[in-house]
Amino acid sequence: MQYDPSQLAALEAVLRLGSFDAAARALSVTPSAISQRIKALEDRAGAALVIRATPCTATPAGARLARHASEVALLEAALARDLGQPAPQARLRLAVNADSLGTWFLPALVGRDMLFDIVVDDQAFSADWLRRGEVSAAICDHARPVQGCDAVPLGRMRYVATCAPDFRDRYFSKGVTAETLSRAPLLQFDGKDALQHHWLRRVTGQALLPPTHRLPSTQGFVEAARLGIGWGLNPEFLAAPLLSSGALVAMRPGVPEDIFLTWQVNRLVAAALAPLTRAVRAQARQSLLPP
């Protein structure tokens, strides 16, 4: 089944910008024209594609069709480059965990002739974006490929349980035990972040539920630990200078938490994204521990 490129462009713009009016401005047409194109595309697809709310969002069929449109654009741009022709900037939607985005990942995007739409989600959940067809590539925390994807091992991202010296003296003067850990406030990125609780079970053998701060910021996580707001597992890459200076202390130096990361790419666009995949692998080799 073939789809009208102008209708696919309208769908992509509505979902990316969140409204028919914004899509119309971006495509230099009227909102009525956008509405007509979306309606025609829905008639052809035989399903609703856009949830008309504020902002507009995709139905499952709409998300799948929008990804199809972006993948076609990526393939056409790669073909144009291979033929030595001017290539339009295609848009690539990725799912990346916040700690990778805040530490090592961004340099891999430098020099890529495309536009990036990055979704931030926990590495344990980023594969769901691939399964739903809402992204074309993602950083995940498991080696098994998502159906229809290639999985490239990247390495292990090491985390160290850290806190400020004053925090240690206040809460862990009797040692880092199940009893003291159950009372000391911990830092959690969001409701999906299970890293601290995994570490707690490893250290104590118990499912502890200590008082918890929610703080969805990689750099803010480190700063909150430095200021003594709570303790948390911070990327060793970020925590190392503060550990060296004594601004942070490792709560259990011999018990880090390693997260194994893979780069998963939809096979339909794997060839078009091969240069990006090479850049991601190279950057991971510089920043992560071996797989």
TrEMBL record:
<protein>
    <submittedName>
        <fullName>ArgP/LysG family DNA-binding transcriptional regulator</fullName>
    </submittedName>
</protein>
<dbReference type="Pfam" id="PF00126">
    <property type="entry name" value="HTH_1"/>
</dbReference>
<dbReference type="InterPro" id="IPR036388">
    <property type="entry name" value="WH-like_DNA-bd_sf"/>
</dbReference>
<dbReference type="InterPro" id="IPR000847">
    <property type="entry name" value="LysR_HTH_N"/>
</dbReference>
<comment type="similarity">
    <text>Belongs to the LysR transcriptional regulatory family.</text>
</comment>
<keyword id="KW-0804">Transcription</keyword>
<dbReference type="InterPro" id="IPR050176">
    <property type="entry name" value="LTTR"/>
</dbReference>
<dbReference type="InterPro" id="IPR017685">
    <property type="entry name" value="ArgP"/>
</dbReference>
<keyword id="KW-0805">Transcription regulation</keyword>
<feature type="domain" description="HTH lysR-type">
    <location>
        <begin position="1"/>
        <end position="59"/>
    </location>
</feature>
<dbReference type="Pfam" id="PF03466">
    <property type="entry name" value="LysR_substrate"/>
</dbReference>
<dbReference type="GO" id="GO:0003677">
    <property type="term" value="F:DNA binding"/>
</dbReference>
<dbReference type="GO" id="GO:0003700">
    <property type="term" value="F:DNA-binding transcription factor activity"/>
</dbReference>
<dbReference type="InterPro" id="IPR005119">
    <property type="entry name" value="LysR_subst-bd"/>
</dbReference>
<keyword id="KW-0238">DNA-binding</keyword>
<dbReference type="InterPro" id="IPR036390">
    <property type="entry name" value="WH_DNA-bd_sf"/>
</dbReference>
